[in-house]
Amino acid sequence: MHIKSVTAEAFGPLVNETLTLSPGLTVVHGDNESAKSSWHAAIYAALCGRRRGKGANKLEDRDFADRRRPWDRNSWKVRCEVRLDDGRTVTLRHDLDGKVDCCAVDERGRDLSSEIMYDGAPDGSRWLGLNRRTFAATACVNQAELLRVLDAADELQTDIRRAAATAGRDETAAAALAALKKYSSDHVGLDRVNSRRPLRRALDDHERARAAYDQAQRAHQDYLRLVVESDAAQEAAAAAAVERAAAEAANDAAERLIQVAEGSLQRRQRSLRRRHLPTRSEPRPAPASPESPELARWRCRCRTLHQAAPAATMRSPSRSPERWAAGSRRPTFHRCRARRRKICRPRSTACLRPPRRRRRRPDRRTSS
Length: 368
Known about the structure:
Helix content is 45%, strand content 14%. The longest helix is centred in the middle third of the chain and has 79 residues. By secondary structure, the chain is an alpha+beta fold. Among the domains are: 170 residues, Rossmann fold (3-Layer(aba) Sandwich); 74 residues. It has a 5-stranded antiparallel β-sheet, with helices on one face.
C-alpha cells in the first residue's frame, strides 16, 4: 500500500493544506515549529481515524485530541489518498470531531468502509493486517515514544504473525484470481451475441422485460388518454342533455303560444263573421249559377198563362219562379184536413210544374 497524498482541511495549525508523498522514501524537514510533527500526526489520523465505539476514550486518545485539535476552528477533518496492492485507489475521509462523516470510497464511488471497519470507524491499516493501535506502535512512532513498543509487545507480536500469515497467503493470489476467472467464465460468461452463458441469457431477458415495460407504458398512456376522452364525452353528453331539455321546454312553450294564438284567431274570425253577415232586411243575392233550360221553359209557360188569365188568377210574388233557382226545392202546398189550412211541404227540384188546382165541386145542396 502506498500513501499518495494527505490533505489537512483543519488539523492543528494546518488549514486546507496538502502533502504529496513520493512512491519511494519521503523526508520532511524544516525548522522547529514548522508543523513537521503535525504532518506526521495528520498522516496517522487520515489513514487510521479515531475510535468511534461505545465507552469513554482512552488516555492516549484524549491526549491526541488535546494536542492535535485545530487552534481556531470548530471542525476537525483530514483525508488521504492511498493506492492498494491490487491497483485500487481509495480515498479515506475522517471527521475527527463529529465522527460521522467517515468513509472509504474508491475511484468508482463504491464505499469500502465495511472492509476496514475497526472500533466503529474505517481503519486503513487493516489492509496491512494491523489496526490503529499496532500501527501507532510500529509504523507511526514519534521521536520521544520509541519505548512504547515495550508496552504493546504482546499485541504487536499477534499482529505481526497475522501480517506474516496474510503475506504467505498473498503468494497464492494469482491462483485464486485464475480460479475466480474460470468460475466467472463457466457460470457467468461474456457479453457476446452468440453466447449461451447466464450473463447473455440474463441480458436477453432484461431486453425482453424492457420491451414489455415500454409496451405497458404505451398502453397505460393510451388508457389515460381514453379516460380523458371518456370524461370529456360524458361532460358533452350532460351538456347536450341540458340543451335538449331546454329546447323541449321552449318547444312546449311555443306550442302553447301557438294554441293560444289559434284560439284567439278563431275567436276573432267568428267575431268578424258575425259582424259582416247580411241582415234579414237586406235582399238575398241572386244565385251566381246560370239558369237551367227547364227553368227557362217554365218561365215561358208561366208568362203565357199570365197573359191569358185574368189578374185575379195571378200567382202571388211569394210563389214566383224567381225564388225557385237551380238547385233549390219548389214548395208544394197541401191542405191539412184537421186545421183546414195550407201547409208548405218541399218537393224535389226535378218537378218544376206549378201546383195543380183542384176543381171545387158544386154543392149538391145548393144546386138542388
